[in-house]
Write a structure and sequence with these properties.
The chain is of the alpha/beta class. It has 3 domains: 116 residues, NAD(P)-binding Rossmann-like Domain (Rossmann fold); 160 residues, NAD(P)-binding Rossmann-like Domain (Rossmann fold, 3-Layer(aba) Sandwich), CATH 3.40.50; 90 residues, Erythronate-4-phosphate dehydrogenase, dimerisation domain (Ribosomal Protein S8, Chain: A, domain 1, 2-Layer Sandwich). 41% of the residues lie in helices and 15% in strands. It has 17 helices and 14 strands. Strands 7-6-8-9-10-11 form a 6-stranded parallel sheet, sandwiched between helices. α17 links the parallel β13 and β14. The radius of gyration is 21 Å and the shape is globular. The termini are far apart. 42% of the residues are buried.
Amino acid sequence: MHIIADENIPLIQEFFSELGTIETLPGRDMTAEQVKNADVLLVRSITPVNAQLLEGSKVKFVATATIGCDHIDLDYLKKNRIGFANSPGCNANSVVEYVLSVLTLLSDQEGFLLKEKTVGIIGAGNVGGCLQKRLQEIGIKVLVNDPPRAAAEGEEGFTELDTLLAEADVISMHTPLITTGDHPTEHLLNAKRIKNLKPGTILINSGRGGALDNQALKKRLLEHDDLIVALDVWESEPGIDHALLELVDIATPHIAGYSLDGKLAGTEMVYQAVCQGFGLPVRKKLAQLIPEPPLKKVSYSHSAHRWWSTLTSIRACYDVRNDDIAMRRAFAKAARANKPLGPVFDELRRSYPIRREFHTLRIQLKNNQQKLADRLEKFGFGIKFGK
């Protein structure tokens, strides 16, 4: 069996070496010539998998180590009897922790209390649903817009989009990119909706860049500069709008779901799917291969303030400011040298540093710190008590 895989999928050799030969390639630049003799194609979200890539190839199975499938022509795969699997939920925790890092940073910088804000979640699938649960556990009011789920489950518990946009203080977008059908999401936040956002709204997009009209957002920020914006996904990736990057408050290169834990979970899921697709035994488990986190434990004294402890714990695992600074510096350097920006975007993703999720950090507390323990556990951290 010959396996072609995106070079950014971790532990490929460890999981797949017993199944056959492995060749890793840059995901955005895969060509039909490169994959024509492959039996299995493993990708992430940046590789369009369609007739142009697969026509005439030997590929029998395609798997994406991501939740989304909008880069995959599923009709073509089905028509040509090519097996398929994705990795639902693999990086949901990672994206949720990205949003929490953004919100706690803005809370600290802007001087507001999270518990006094209403968060509107657009798209409540694996990621949005996980975010909803985490925020509600923390005690934050949440509004949810998800028309497909509302149609299937009933309207109770869901909010119409324009009502959500009017009432929410924070808007967090988690929709796939859908261009057809009853519930398209392309430019779901269009020029009119962006224009009507109330001043001071916090807008976070870590779903799909095309769900938000980037040019309309740029126009609003240039004319009024009265929104607080964090963008992890962008239209026209990797050749994103540098002028828009300079206008937003937090800019990152599509890495919200890039925790090592999320990536590894995706690798395990596609490994299991390939084994099942070819009738092979599953011999490897992630627990056998996952590395220890670089930071295993932190401790807080009995007098530690709960908000300070929460903020410190989040930043010990992931501080979104580091990604924002790295992106701005890299883009500014390339712009000064008059170099194209697309390769800079991809290199930031390719060379992304190891990032672990909250649950890998064990927090040591004293037996009389139950209230702090309860709060940190709601954010997703592990707790260990001692004297």
